[in-house]
Amino acid sequence: LVSIVKILTEQPEIKKMRVEGHTDAQGKAKANKKLSQKRAAAVVKWLTKFGISKKRLSSEGWGQERPGATNNTDEGRRENRRVEFHIVEGPGGEGGAK
């Protein structure tokens, strides 16, 4: 997260970044969705605490809807419990950066 603060501080041309929370597929989908929303919101809160304007940030929770790896192994589930950062406005646009 410190790296994200550095990037956003040094690159004011990044006008908007979306923080996305994800979970593995264990548990109920509705609970995972809520968990992922809280995860993303917590990251936004942390970033604002360290000087990033809330106007430049948004958050979204995807729960288990967009796995980045298999949910059939411990390693895959670990990889799915993640936060991603996507540039919405600025260089790189909606292509996103993890």
**Unreliable residue stretches:** none
The average pLDDT is 94
**Strand segment count:** 3
Structure classification: alpha+beta
> What integer value in Å does the Rg equal?
14 Å
Described by the principal axes of the CA atoms, the overall outline is: elongated
If helices are DSSP runs of H or I spanning 4 or more residues, what is the number of helices? 3
Q: Record the strand order, biggest sheet.
A: 2-1-3
Measured between the Cα atoms of the first and last residue, the distance is 12 Å
Could you explain the architecture of this structure?
The chain is an alpha+beta fold. Helices cover 38% and strands 18% of the residues. The chain has helices spanning 2-10, 29-49, 74-80, and strands at 16-21, 57-61, 83-89. A three-stranded mixed beta sheet has the order 2-1-3. The radius of gyration is 14 Å and the shape is elongated.
Keywords summarizing the entry:
98 residues, alpha+beta, 3-stranded mixed beta sheet
Please give a quick description of this structure.
Helices cover 38% and strands 18% of the residues. By secondary structure, the protein is α+β, with helices and mostly antiparallel strands.
